[in-house]
Every structure is written in structure tokens, then in C-alpha cells.
Design a protein that fits this description.
The chain is of the alpha/beta class and 431 residues long. Helix content is 44%, strand content 12%. The protein starts with 8 loop residues before the first helix and ends with a strand.
Length: 431
């Protein structure tokens, strides 16, 4: 029989631990976010539907984005036991300079629409964390102001080739003059993808005050107060606005972009040049043969061609073929530090985060971006320790198995050229 007694007051008092209340609402909600998914939930609650859906959505049926995220879930880690990793070094060298973490902030357009601090928050947080920040051609903060927000950190510039080439050339010169060290030449946006959430929401630049947006704004007055009491949105390359994002992109972008444009831009740019939006092995080889400094395997976050290749699935094949000759990076679908660790283990030299950063921005401005980086840093460190590795360089393909869910049909279309290589590579089938 269990012996029972009346609770003793001193022992009861020891159990009564009350936390000091946190009066800072922003800190309170950010502290409650333990994952990027938590930040997304907060962002959705605090941001008007049209602006949130612009960030959260993808093209058409959003199949590419779903597959990219599924690919990261469909991995199996293989830890080493009895390999002490009490402390880990997450730093890497990328494109001629250091990064304290194996990821940087990807270029995102119209960023101040998500939250008024926009690129200033992203650049400042990146600088404080010691990672690169990438400004988009369609950013809502000038090249010079981003440099002022991150004066001692690494700033990269993402370039679209516009119909008016002189606009693009001018941006290249300004970024070089401001000390940006890497140019990210983007090739997957000759025209805008069909972003159906934006069309259904009637999302335009700038956002219009309609009955729908007013009703949606009622529980989110802080967003509209910020939007209406801060400087008018200005874009690096658009001289006029008005219309959906797709209409603006189609008016600005040039579907005739070619390798000749790449050569012209290379001749103008004094730093490193990376091509973003590469989606097959043949293009990867050709670009490396042309001497670019790196490539980013990316399908634009699933926002352009739906059912496009999954960058993470493409990564091992490209690394095997060209990884010794150039820097191979990857983005699209990264929502956890383990996704980054898996990418590095399979040969990526670096990764980029887009939506994860924007969820933090919408959840809490600059402090929200800091929280995004903090969450990913913690997940990376914990995953490395559990794998038994102390440095990023110790990560190897043997640490990760990509489980098969979508497999090409041999002998059909593009699958015919890669099926032999894939059959020879080890794989596991998820039950």
C-alpha cells in the first residue's frame, strides 16, 4: 500500500514557480514560436490575407512547392554513435567570404508589403548573424539603404534582365558601387507564373482599399497603420505601379533573355556571379563551362513553373557532375535546420531561405527575422550534434538517404537521360 500524507506547505511552495509576466507583446509572441511553422501561424494572424497569400502561395496548383517540402521530409538521417560533438562550428566559406551559418537570406520582392521594416530588417538581422543578405531587383528598399543597414556584412544583389536593358545595367553599376560582392543573375522568370491566390484575392501593387480589404483589415489594424504612416513603396526597377504582381512582372521582364545577356552582365560585374534558377544537369554543365562562379538550383519557390524539378532531389546528381568545379547552392522548400543540414551533406555549398525569413518578418519585424535565424541555428546545431559531426565539412552523403516517393518512368521524356544514373545510385523506398 502507498503511504499517504497531507501535503507539507514548504514542499508545496517549492513546486509553485510563477514566471514573471512579459509585458513586451512582440517578445512574448516570438518567444512562443519554436519552429518556422509557428512563425508562419503568427504571421498569418497578423498580416492581411492578400499580403500573406502573396508570400505563402506558389504557382497554379502549388504542386512544385508541396513536392519540394515533401522531399525534405522524405529523408532518413544516419547518425554516427560515440562521436562526441559537444560543440559545433556552423561556419562556411562561400563565394570568397565567410558566413557564420550555412544559409543566407534569399531575394524577395515587394518585401515592405509583408511588414513595413522590409529589407532593412532582413539586412540588419543578416549582418548581426554574420550571414549574407540578398536584395531583389523588385525589392522595396534601395541598394544604398540596404548597404547602410548592413554596412559591414555581406550584401548580394539579385538581378532580373528587364525589357529596358539600361535599367538592369544601371542596377548592376549601383550594386557594384555600393560594395555588394555577389550578383545573382536570375533566369527562371522570363514571364510571371500563374499565382492564382493573388488573382483570387485581387492583390495589386500597391494594395487597394476595397470592401474586402477593409473587412480583412479590421482585426489587423496595426498593418494598415504601418502601411499608411510610412514612406510610399518604392522599387529598384519599376517606375510605375498599379496592377497585379503578374501584370507588373510581365510588363517588366523580357522573355528573350539569353546567354548573350549573361555575357554582357558578366563583363560589367567586378565580383562573383551566380546563376539562380537552374533546373537541370545540362544547363548546370554549360554554365560551369562558361565560367560562372556558382549556380543556385531553384524553381523560384514553386512560384513560376508548376511541376518543375525539385531542387533538393536534383542536388546529388548536379554535385557529382560539376560540384568540383563550381559552387552549387540550393533553395526552395527549406523550413527547418535539418533541411539545411541534409542539403549540405548531399554536397551543397550553401542554401538560401525565402519564406522562412518572411514569416519571421511578418510575425515581428526585425526581431522576427532574428528569431527565424535563431530557430534555424538551433536546429542546425542540434541536428549536427545528433549526427555526431562537429563541422559542416564533416557532413557527407552517407549521412542522408533520400527516400523515393516520386520516381521517373524510365525511357519517357527527360527521365530517359537520367534513369540509368539514378538506378545505379542507392535509394530506399518509404513504406
Amino acid at each position: 500500500m502507498v503511504q499517504r500524507q497531507l501535503p507539507k506547505i514548504p514542499e508545496l511552495l517549492e513546486l509553485m514557480q510563477f514566471k514573471k509576466p512579459e509585458w513586451d507583446a512582440t517578445k512574448r509572441r516570438l518567444d512562443s514560436a519554436l519552429t518556422i511553422s509557428d512563425l508562419r501561424t503568427i504571421a498569418k494572424r497578423r498580416t492581411p490575407k492578400a499580403a500573406f497569400d502573396y508570400t505563402d502561395g506558389a504557382a497554379e496548383g502549388e504542386i512544385s512547392l508541396g513536392r519540394a517540402r515533401q522531399a525534405f521530409e522524405d529523408i532518413e538521417f544516419h547518425p554516427d554513435i560515440l562521436r562526441p560533438a559537444a560543440s559545433v562550428d556552423t561556419s562556411v566559406e562561400i563565394l570568397g567570404g565567410p558566413s557564420a551559418l550555412p544559409f543566407g537570406i534569399a531575394p524577395t520582392g515587394f518585401t515592405r508589403l509583408m511588414q513595413t521594416e522590409g529589407e532593412i530588417a532582413g539586412a540588419g538581422a543578416a549582418g548581426a548573424a554574420g550571414i549574407p543578405f540578398t536584395l531583389s531587383t523588385l525589392g522595396t528598399t534601395s541598394i544604398e539603404n540596404v548597404r547602410a543597414a548592413n554596412p559591414h556584412g555581406r550584401n548580394w544583389f539579385q538581378l532580373y534582365v528587364m525589357r529596358d536593358r539600361e535599367i538592369s545595367y544601371g542596377l548592376v553599376k549601383r550594386a557594384a558601387a555600393a560594395g555588394f560582392d555577389t550578383l545573382m543573375f536570375t533566369v527562371d522568370t522570363p514571364v510571371a507564373g500563374a499565382r492564382l491566390r493573388d488573382k483570387r484575392n485581387g492583390f495589386s501593387i500597391p494594395p487597394q482599399l476595397t470592401l474586402g480589404t477593409i473587412v480583412n483589415a479590421i482585426p489587423r489594424p496595426w498593418w494598415w497603420v504601418d502601411f499608411l504612416t510610412t514612406p510610399k513603396l518604392e522599387f529598384a526597377s519599376l517606375t510605375t505601379t498599379g496592377g497585379t504582381v503578374g501584370e507588373l512582372l510581365d510588363a517588366a521582364m523580357d522573355p528573350t533573355i539569353s546567354y548573350e545577356d549573361l555575357e554582357v552582365i558578366r563583363s560589367m560585374w567586378p565580383g562573383k556571379i551566380v546563376v539562380k534558377g537552374v533546373q537541370n544537369l545540362a544547363d548546370s554543365k554549360r554554365l560551369i563551362d562558361l565560367g560562372v562562379d556558382g549556380i543556385v538550383l531553384s524553381n523560384h519557390g514553386g512560384r513560376q513553373l508548376d511541376r518543375a524539378p525539385i531542387p533538393f532531389r536534383l542536388l546529388p546528381e548536379v554535385v557529382r557532375e560539376v560540384g568540383k568545379d563550381a559552387t552549387v547552392m540550393v533553395d526552395t522548400g527549406i523550413m527547418h535546420g535539418a533541411d539545411i543540414v541534409a542539403s549540405m551533406a548531399l554536397g551543397a555549398k550553401f542554401t538560401l531561405i525565402g519564406r522562412a525569413y518572411l514569416y519571421g518578418l511578418m510575425a515581428g519585424g526585425r526581431r522576427g527575422v532574428d528569431r527565424t535565424i535563431e530557430i534555424l541555428r538551433s536546429e542546425i546545431e542540434r541536428t549536427m550534434k545528433l549526427l555526431g559531426v562537429s563541422t559542416i565539412a564533416e557532413l557527407e552523403p552517407r549521412h542522408v538517404t533520400q527516400l523515393q516517393r516520386l520516381t521517373p518512368v524510365p525511357g519517357v521524356g527527360a527521365a530517359a537521360s537520367v534513369s540509368r544514373a539514378r538506378r545505379s545510385a542507392p535509394a530506399r523506398v518509404k513504406a
